[in-house]
UniProtKB/TrEMBL annotation:
CDD domains: HECTc (cd00078). Residues 424-751 form the HECT domain. SUPFAM superfamilies: Hect, E3 ligase catalytic domain (SSF56204), RCC1/BLIP-II (SSF50985). It comes from the Eukaryota. The lineage of its organism: Eukaryota, Metazoa, Chordata, Craniata, Vertebrata. Its main location: cytoplasm. This is HECT-type E3 ubiquitin transferase. The active site is at C719 (glycyl thioester intermediate). One of its GO terms (molecular function) is ubiquitin protein ligase activity. Its EC number is 2.3.2.26. InterPro entries: E3A/B/C-like, HECT_dom, Hect_E3_ubiquitin_ligase, RCC1/BLIP-II, Reg_chr_condens. One of its GO terms (biological process) is protein polyubiquitination. It comes from Cyprinus carpio (Common carp).
Length: 751
């Protein structure tokens, strides 16, 4: 209102303001008890003068306002003689002795100047005061940039985390051990135990952002006294403050968020190493609590990361040391039993926190689940055989412990459907053995790999019209309309499940949305951008458009135009969609409906059959442990080619070694090949042109010499990733023979 105010006083729900230029007091807020001094009991939303003269006369002496106060529903003014030369108190001028201690550059320098040798009681008390008080730390490291700390809210913390890091690192130094000891003791004994699960205000949450930047929390000797108690304070927060903290974390720079994640990954590794060395029985309970708290804290961070659209990549949560620190398979069995039989067990199972498992660990989990499921199927088959033997006195055909597929190359789809249709669900869990009619190959893995390759190639053939191919993304999705039997979609789902259970990758160029849906996660606009980049960009432009002529520019309603079997159809995305125009207020609903139509509504029967087939083989608890992209890599492998790693991890037999002239020529020729030819070589050697989730080294390529002359071609033993390489003496011959071999790959002989 243009007046300078030098004093503010706040009651329960009313405020006083002193204006020195006029000596007047303004008030606003609740006035039911007359606390506003307006000679009424009305509430006021805007300031109004308190009734009465700015100066008063008592016993013929003049008085004026020096200080105002408020409390509850009361208001007070302290008057002094007018001839008193001292001006009214100006609360804008801060008094050093009246301010809360905060951690500042000057205060740290003062402590460090006295930090050598024995600290004085004054310095010791100051350090203890700051690090025993949540208030002192919450008032420290306040942001002065835009938005500054005056704008603190549930989305903005008002603190400068980078400043906190710099100041903490300046304070905690090896050269000043006594300072570090007092800081650690104060936090351990006073600060952390007093943190409330329900802070009085969001500003009281600030220290949860800054405290992890203190180097003391990164010191393993302080894990159990500082780092884990801090995590426990976060885990113990009620939902509302934890949600605010999550909002603040989601605004972190990736490097800052990553530091927090790495800190608690290191804590978990430290605890697991202790466990491996052996924990005394008397300390087992507290150790379990420590491990649970640390993992629960990581779980909170992981949830924040997912909700924020991945501040850091999900694989940054992987703890690669798990394989050496725990028995992953035993952990899965324990978790499986807890899930299946609702067992309440105090034991911490890492499978409750699957985000910490890397690709190698999750592969081990999948193998463990496959072994459990297959063993259960084999045991059932053997029990059935034994029962049949006694029940009928023999003569009854035994149940095979493997799932046998006898197929003809020319009818691989029909033969497979026939066998799988007759198979019971439990049979899908058995190890798969494939026999091609008229071929002598013994299936040690290679025949099975070729079977998956052939059947997927056949099922995805455009002649069936089951899938639509998108040229721009080179991906496929279920066709909206098809004349094919819905059972074929079921078969593809079964084949994908069998491939996972039998650890064989298949060629299936679906977008990530497929794997999201298999894991019951909802596809988004980002998934549509992957499948249909042009459409995805258009929808994003729709959301980003800021001008007022929205409807005139886009002229859209809630419909979609589809071309089906050569005819164009207009389909409604919502009931009466033709009559609903897309405008600024409903454009998000339009985009959501569009995405839902493409990925869900339009293909519901087809995907439902695929889903049922997949889960018939691969359903169960183990899938809950996977991210969509991890499941995708398990099904189709990945294309993270590292050709040097392939060379480095290759083994040699017989006369060959890494520096043998033929081997050196082979790798020279190989590295000169185009990417497509290199991928063809992988297909020739392994049965797939993609690599397993564990990377190139897991291919375990072996090269051995063969007898005969240079007129022979290289031969691949696909079952074993073994290459028979004749001892060529010149580069041109080697290249010619290798290219001929990899371009004529179909058909198995005895391998």
């Amino acid at each position: 209102m243009g007046n300078v105010v030098t004093q503010i006083a706040c009651g329960r729900q009313h405020t006083l303001a002193f204006i020195p230029s006029s000596g007047k007091i303004d008030s606003f807020g609740l006035g039911g008890n007359g606390q506003l001094g307006t000679r009424s009991t009305y509430n006021r939303m805007s300031p109004a003068p308190v009734k009465g003269l700015p100066q008063c006369v008592y016993l013929e002496q003049s008085f004026c306002v020096k200080r105002i106060y408020a409390g509850g529903d009361q208001s007070f003014a302290h008057y002094a003689l007018s001839q008193d030369d001292s001006p009214p108190v100006d609360l804008r001028i801060t008094r050093p002795d009246g301010q809360i201690y905060t951690l500042s550059d000057d205060l740290i320098q003062k402590w460090l100047n006295h930090g050598h040798g024995r600290l004085s009681p004054e310095i010791t008390n100051e350090i203890d005061l700051v690090f025993s008080s949540a208030n002192c730390l919450n008032g420290s490291f306040l942001s002065e940039s835009n938005p500054d700390h005056y704008n603190t809210n549930s989305k903005c913390s008002g603190v400068d985390v980078n400043m906190a890091r710099l100041l903490y690192h300046r304070l905690i130094q090896p050269d000043y051990p006594q300072v570090s000891q007092i800081v650690a003791a104060s936090m351990e004994k006073h600060l952390l135990p007093r943190l409330s699960s329900s802070p009085p205000d969001i500003e009281a949450l600030r220290l949860y952002l800054t405290l992890p930047e203190c180097p003391l929390l990164s010191d393993p000797s302080n894990y159990t006294t500082l780092t884990i108690p801090f995590a426990k304070a976060v885990v113990s927060l009620k939902d509302a403050p934890r949600k605010v903290l999550g909002n603040w974390w989601s605004k972190f720079e990736p490097a800052v968020f990553q530091r927090l994640v790495e800190l608690y990954k290191e804590v978990v590794v430290y605890l697991l190493r202790m466990q491996k060395l052996g924990i005394p029985l008397s300390e087992q309970r507290i150790f379990t609590c420590f491990l649970h708290t640390s993992l629960k804290f990581l779980e909170i961070l992981h949830s924040v990361n997912e909700r924020a659209g991945q501040i850091i990549q999900y694989d940054k949560f992987y703890i690669h040391e798990l394989d050496e620190l725990i028995d992953i398979r035993n952990d899965y069995v324990t978790w499986f039993q807890q899930q299946m039989f609702s067992v309440m067990d105090s034991q911490v199972t890492m499978c409750k926190y699957p985000f910490v498992f890397d690709a190698q660990a999750k592969t081990a989990l999948l193998q463990t689940d496959a072994v459990i499921q297959m063993q259960m199927a084999v045991d059932q088959a053997q029990r059935q055989n034994l029962h049949s033997l006694f029940a009928s006195g023999g003569g009854v055909e035994s149940v095979n412990p493997c799932l046998i597929l006898i197929v003809r190359r020319e009818n691989v789809v029909g033969d497979s459907m026939e066998v799988l249709r007759k198979s019971k669900n439990v049979h899908y869990k058995k190890p798969l053995k494939v026999i091609f009619v008229g071929e002598e190959a013994v299936d040690a893995g290679g025949v099975r790999k070729e079977f998956f390759l052939l059947i997927m190639k056949e099922l995805l053939d455009p002649k069936y019209g089951m899938f639509r191919y998108y040229e721009e993304s080179r991906l496929i999705w279920f066709a909206h309309k098809t004349f094919e039997d819905i059972d074929l979609f079921h078969l593809i789902g079964v084949v994908c499940g069998l491939a996972i259970y039998n650890l064989t990758i298949v060629e299936l160029n679906f977008p990530l949305a497929l794997y999201k849906k298999l894991l019951k996660k909802t596809p988004t606009l980002e998934d549509l951008k992957e499948l249909m980049p042009d459409v995805g960009r258009s929808l994003q432009q729709l959301l980003d458009y800021t001008e007022d002529d929205f409807e005139e520019t886009f002229c859209l309603n809630f419909t979609i135009t589809e071309e089906i079997f050569g005819t164009t159809e207009v389909l409604e995305l919502v009931p009466n969609g033709t009559d609903i125009s897309v405008n600024k207020s409903n454009r998000q609903e339009f985009v959501n409906a569009y995405v839902d139509y493409i990925f869900n509504t339009s293909v519901a029967p087809q995907f439902s059959a695929f889903y049922a087939g997949f889960h018939k083989v691969c359903g169960g608890k183990v899938l809950e442990l996977f991210q969509p992209s991890e499941l995708q890599a398990m099904v189709i492998g990945n294309t993270n080619y590292d050709w040097k790693e392939l060379e480095k991890s290759t083994e040699y037999k017989g006369e060959y070694w890494a520096d043998h002239p033929t081997i050196k020529m082979f790798w020279e020729v190989f590295h000169e090949l185009t990417l497509e030819k290199k991928k063809q070589f992988l297909l020739f050697l392994t049965g797939s042109d993609r690599i397993p989730i564990l990377g190139m080294k897991s291919l375990a390529l072996v090269i051995q010499p063969t007898g005969g002359g240079e007129q022979y071609f290289p031969v691949a033993h696909t079952c074993f990733n073994l290459l028979d390489l004749p001892k060529y003496t010149n580069k041109e011959t080697l290249k010619e023979k290798l290219l001929h071999a990899i371009e004529h790959i179909q058909g198995f002989n005895l391998v």
